[in-house]
Amino acid sequence: MKKILAAIINSIEKNGKYIPYDIAEPIMTNSQK
User: Fold this and answer.
1) How many other C-beta atoms lie within 10 A of the C-beta of residue 4?
2) Taking a C-beta distance cutoff of 8 angstroms, is the pair 31, 4 a contact?
3) What is the Cα–Cα distance from 10 to 15, expressed in whole angstroms?
């Protein structure tokens, strides 16, 4: 699951955009389940 999250983060960084923590945190929580 960490690989999926890393891929999401990498794709956002390539686009020059960053996810606000309040959006990223639930994604990380859901990916751990």
Assistant:
1) 10
2) yes
3) 9
